[in-house]
From TrEMBL:
Binding site for Mn(2+): 177, 200, 202, 204, 293, 295
The family this protein is said to belong to: Belongs to the arginase family. Agmatinase subfamily.
PROSITE patterns cross-referenced by the UniProt entry: ARGINASE_1, ARGINASE_2
Biological process terms in GO annotation: putrescine biosynthetic process from arginine, via agmatine
SUPFAM superfamilies: Arginase/deacetylase
Name of this chain's protein: Similar to Putative agmatinase 2 acc. no. O42887
Coiled coil ranges: none
Signal peptide residues on this chain, from the entry's feature table: 1-17
GO molecular function, one term: metal ion binding
Native source organism of the sequence: Pyronema omphalodes (strain CBS 100304)
Cofactor note: Binds 2 manganese ions per subunit.
Length: 379
């Protein structure tokens, strides 16, 4: 795919990125030293290879699509894969439409014009080969069967190689949060135990015994992951917590499972910088799986989700925290997901989907930047 862009749509992107900003119209100067740009309707050869943000079939950020599950020899540095699943939810369902919404929310991320000035990288036009692998065809009739399906699919993706023979970064577009269990199984097979950095309003380490006969839910899967030995028992982090509890025993259980808790209000005392420092301190030297539940954000920022909790972080705070963590020297990212985007509860401005797509952009920016700093170059 040719990574270019129509000048007109680049202008559109620039102008709309600065609403009410400094792009005031001025009378065109008549000074002859200023070049003029007359309208030119002569078309360049193959002009149709250009990308417009409002056109095309929605792959994530207009990246190339390959259905990776049936193409075992396909290589990529980063695999984006959708897990459209929501039958393990406890409140409002609808996250099965998350992958679709996230792809739609990513359409203004155009590979030729996605330079992240704060990270100093364009994640889509650097060394990393990034492929939108499509969606895992998960059943909606049995959560247990779906878990077997997603585990198999994630494991299949993780058997793929990068162009230089390594293991790819797994990026999952959820889906309700339970999909992390399948992803962690697959990542564990390649990397062994990982530390989980869990952005969420909720603990998700709840004891499966509370859910008699149906242990696999979007509130228990981190507990299950611990029992399966997939994740570290002393270096995981929750960030953005603010849910109500059954009682303080929930925190004791959580601590026993190896979790550090950063509450949403902690940012008032620590600042975004302090939150980053606390997380990096905890994750230093670890292989890290970053899981981002969209309900970390305040419902004013991200209403389109299944179990909203008021009093959350803003996207501006989250961008800074993600940048700080993903560019930290001694934190090795091996997988990520963005989960619980349920577009039926989003607003007409698609703000939840936009925020979710931005989370992916920020994390990939940090990941690709670190690769650049380590000497990786475009093939
Ligand atoms: C008009 O556009 C065509 C196609 O991009 C280009 O080849 C040509 O040089 C342009 N002409 C002028 C006068 O800028
Ligand atoms: C963590 O797991 C190791 C074995 O993998 C075990 O020796 C250790 O006691 C565990 N720590 C806690 C706090 O459970």
């Amino acid at each position: 795919m040719k990574l270019s862009i129509l000048l007109s749509s680049l202008l559109l992107a620039t102008v709309s990125a600065h609403p009410g900003g400094h792009h005031e119209e001025r009378a065109v100067s008549s000074q002859s030293s200023h070049p003029t740009y007359p309208t030119n309707t002569t078309l360049a050869p193959n002009w149709w290879n250009d990308i417009v943000p409002y056109g095309g079939i929605n792959t994530f950020a207009h990246l190339p699509h390959v259905f990776c599950l049936s193409q075992p020899s396909e290589t990529f540095d980063i695999a984006l894969i959708g897990a459209p699943f929501d039958t393990a939810t406890s409140y409002r369902p609808g996250a099965r439409f998350g992958p679709r919404a996230l792809r739609a929310g990513s359409q203004r991320q155009i590979p030729a014009a996605s330079y992240n000035a704060l990270t100093g990288v364009n994640p889509y036009a650097s060394w990393a080969k990034i492929t939108d692998c499509g969606d895992i065809p998960l059943t909606s009739f049995s959560s247990e069967l779906a878990l077997a399906q997603m585990t198999s699919a994630f494991e299949e993706i993780m058997t793929h190689k990068t162009p230089s023979g390594g293991s790819p970064l797994l990026v999952t577009l959820g889906g309700d949060h339970s999909i992390i269990l399948g992803a962690l199984r697959a990542v564990n097979k390649i990397h062994g135990q990982v530390a989980v950095l869990h952005f969420d309003a909720h603990l998700d380490t709840w004891d499966p015994r509370f859910y008699v006969g149906t242990p696999f839910t979007h509130g228990t899967m981190l507990n299950l992951a611990g029992r399966e030995g997939l994740i570290s028992n002393n270096s995981n982090v929750h960030a953005g917590l603010r849910t109500a509890l059954v009682g303080m025993g929930d925190y004791r259980d959580d601590t026993e499972q190896g979790w550090l808790r950063i509450g949403s209000e902690d940012i008032d005392d620590l600042g975004a910088k302090g939150v980053v420092e606390k997380i990096v301190q905890r994750l230093k030297g670890k292989k890290v799986y970053l899981s981002f539940d969209i309900d970390t954000l305040d419902p004013a920022v991200a209403p389109g989700t299944g179990t909203p909790e008021v009093g959350g972080w803003t996207m501006r705070e989250v961008k800074r925290i993600l940048r700080g963590i993903t560019t930290a020297e001694d934190v090795e990212l091996v997988g990520m997901d963005i989960v619980e985007v349920a577009p039926a509860y989003d607003n007409q401005g698609e703000i939840t989907a936009l925020a979710g797509a931005q989370v992916v952009f920020e994390v990939l920016s940090g990941y690709v930047k670190k690769g650049e700093l380590a000497g990786k170059k475009a093939a």
